[in-house]
Amino acid sequence: MNETLDIPELDLDPYAEQHLLDPYPMHARLREAGPVVRLKPYPGVVACARHEQVHAVFNDHATFISGAGVGLTNFDLETPFRPKSLILEADPPLHTQTRAVLSRILSPKAVTAIRATFTEVAEALVERCVAKGSIDGIHDLAQVYPLKVFPDAVGVEEHGRENLLIYGDMVFNSMGPRNALLARSAERMVPVTEWIMAHCRREHLRPGAFGDQIYQAADAGEITHEQAPLLVRSFLSAGVDTTINGIGNALFALAHHPGEYAKLHADPALARPAFEEALRWESTAQTFYRTAVRDCKIAGVPVAANIKVLCMLAAANRDPRKWPNPDRYDIGRRPSGHVAFGAGIHGCVGQAVARLEGEVVLTALAKRVRRIEVAGPHTRRLNNTLRALDTLPLRLIPA
């Protein structure tokens, strides 16, 4: 299907440092260029930056598969650096089987059961932060909280949890090109991967916790015992970094929009919409790929088989075709339909837990903090896939 060559082409690299630091001008260029755009540095890739097309690709899993990898590398042509994820990098029927197990473990009932504990930890942590007055929003709050509550829920021991941060950074960097960011991550790969896989084994997981429940599903014959540690790995690789950045980005949004934080402080019940709007406004996962399994069309534009389709989640979430004033952070907005957690059958299986974490942290802040002030310049941790902060100096004014 040579018609692929007729797609508009832009000479830009989404992974260039300038675009990772400030992606929004690039997103606007991509959206305005057309519903499907070619990127000159990546000949086997087409990009979709408009909400309609990103949503459509995610919801057509039969045409746009995940099993060839959700990053730039095509796993049908190259061997992945680690065994493929049985949930993120799998298609039906395997995906249907493994997702059913994880969906049950992370069911609404299960999330309700952990709510009290998650709330108690959030309130205690926010109390400590308020007592300090001046904090680093990332290292004192956004990083500490998910690294405590989610591994606890999975059943992972406390010692060595910093390895989860290193591993998550590496996994999400691996979804981009072989650039300096990936090279730096890969330098730490071997010992960290060994720690991760060791802590995916049943003997290292607390009985009854989420991780052990995966092994119980293997005992029941729903999955194999060989699949069980890989599914635990999915929890550990995707369930920490993303939520850290989601909370960090929400703190950034609220600190830079004091009027919106004043609304939240006046009504802590707005914590969930405030977090949801932050996910749209500053999307944690900026990009994911699909692979066209056959010659097809996106928005009437021909796309050849085996082409990688770069879905620009963050660009879609600020598409003016979908939302009025999309660059404005507005906690009164109901950003239903945002794709920060993906969409379709591969939508984030743990999104209910992530939403719970964001909600209880922002609720605790709203009740105890009258105003959040920016206390200095922030710095970013560049990653090929994630929108991440490294430091976020804040001043918390108590209620």
Q: Could you report the average pLDDT, rounded to the nearest whole number?
A: 94
Give the biggest sheet.
6 strands, mixed
Radius of gyration over C-alpha positions, nearest whole angstrom = 21 Å
- Lateral arrangement of strands in the main beta sheet: 1-2-3-9-6-4
The CA-CA distance between the termini, in Å, is: 63 Å
Ranges where pLDDT stays below 50 over 5 or more residues in a row are none
The proportion of strand residues reads 5-15%
Looking at CATH, the homologous superfamily is Cytochrome P450
Could you spell the SSE succession in H and E letters? EHHEEHEHHEHHHHHHHHHHEEEEHHEEEE
Q: State the shape.
A: globular
- SS-derived structural category: alpha+beta
CATH architecture: Orthogonal Bundle
User: How many structural domains does the protein architecture include?
Assistant: 1
The overall strand count is 13
Number of helices: 17
Helix content range of the residues, please?
Answer: 40-55%
